Amino acid sequence: MITQEQRDKLRGWFTGRLPDDLFEELVEVTVDREEVTVIGRIPGPDPADDASDAERESAVQGRIQEFRERTRESRMAVAREAEHQFRRKVSWGVECAGQRALFTHVAAPVMTRLRQPERQVLDTLIAGGVARSRSEALAWCVRLVQRHTDDWLTELRESLEHVERVRAQGPDADSSAP
Questions:
Q1: Which of 66, 73, 131, 158 could form a disulfide with 137 if both were Cys (CB 3.0 to 4.6 A apart)?
Q2: Assign residue 91 a region: left if phi > 0, alpha if psi is -120 to 50, beta otherwise?
């Protein structure tokens, strides 16, 4: 479990370490056991007033691609330092003109044991064309739960952070004590 203090320190490290001209603003730094994801805002393109929606969309995609290529070396240098310091892979993304794009991200395998009724749910999603495999169907289910339970998950994370604080104050917190 990652505590809020650890998240704050991580965000602070990236805030201080990122080149000043990389992003307009550091939008988000998220972390789990395997990965740190850094998302920053970049300036949007300035298409003509009479540009079509397709032209505007293409201009944003072009701007994102240009940023990705132009900043690759500096982002990778920061990522190498962060990966060494925090022992997690670093992934990058941007927000541009209201769109979010991730450049890289970790797809971590997760093993689980499911009983037949649970497997049938996944198989139904496959039969319905929602997913191509049980793995993809399970990921779809997790995204669905995530979308509909943000408040509950936030409360649970806060409770776990409280448990960590209480544990840190317990008798085993100072290992040098007799």
A1: 131
A2: beta
**Contact status, residue 106 vs residue 31, Cβ threshold 8 Å:** no
pLDDT at 177 over 70: no
Which is nearest to 85 in space by CA: 165, 12, 20, 19?
A: 12
Q: Within 10 A of 154 (CB to CB), how many other CB atoms are there?
A: 10
| pTM given for the model | 0.71
Q: Which of 65, 123, 69, 73 is nearest to 96 (CA)?
A: 65
**Do 125 and 140 touch, CB atoms closer than 8 A?**
yes
Contacts of 59 (CB under 8 A, 6+ apart): 45, 47, 51
Cβ atoms 100, 39 nearer than 8 A: yes
In this predicted model, what pLDDT tens digit does every residue of 142-166 receive, in sequence order?
Answer: 988 888 787 787 888 888 888 888 8
Q: Can you read off the two tokens belonging to residue 3?
A: 């505590």
